[in-house]
Specification:
It contains 6 helices and 10 strands, in the order H-E-E-E-E-E-E-E-E-H-H-H-H-H-E-E. The chain has helices at residues 4-18, 123-126, 140-148, 155-160, 170-180, 194-207, and strands spanning 23-28, 42-49, 52-58, 65-71, 77-81, 95-101, 105-109, 112-118, 244-248, 251-255.
Amino acid sequence: MPEGDTVWNTARVLHRALAGVRLTGSDFRVPQLAATDLAGWTVRESASRGKHLLLRLAAPETDEHRTLHSHLRMEGAWRAYAPDERWSARPAHLIRVVLRSATAVAVGYHLHELALVPTAEEHTLVGHLGPDLLGPDWDVDEAVRRLAAHPDTTIGEALLDQRNLAGVGNLYKCEVLFLRGISPWTPVGAVPDLAGTVTLAQKLLAANRGRWTQSTTGSLHRGRTSYVYGRRAQPCRRCGTAIRKEELGERVTYWCPVCQPDHPATRPG
């Protein structure tokens, strides 16, 4: 699932394949960019901002800079191939953009919010995001300030709001709250240590940088990588109680009803 660490890893793959390389061609398969031609442009860098991916480009023989922005959401992916390699990651009808160079080809599948903007205007696309858990702007105090500004919101929903902190997805939300012993339905204002909660989230994402198997337990073996996420009806690794799964806001959540007791103000349905 594309969460902050997955997007960070993807940005590194594209950076290794394309940074400093001049593009020989591009193929955009979305209406708003169908006529765009990036041949001759040089890829300056590939970077992530929360769950957003930013490819920064320089025009040939001018000082013009643009950023190709994409959001992976649930299904999106980028892959880098050798020039003569078969594109095998996804079906061809899911391709949204192809960037070609003499040494590599980058293919974007099922991308969302694909846009090309002047690099100086990146803020119009990602400026609303909170501190990036894997970025140089990570700031625990600012993340806590943003969370605390909405004390009646459930902590489960607040952690997923990218305006509070950028990079946490449903997996890390569930796992962090389990490890902290907090019910997902607890109001933000009743969480005893918001700084400790977001600090743990940052540590978990950082621990998974550079690898594609996401683990919060320390194990990389199949079926042992999470405490509660994806484990409905399986025994809690701490107390043996069956893990529960239920909707919270627009997403489902997993939790242990014993290790994460309900807060008196709210109870799941």
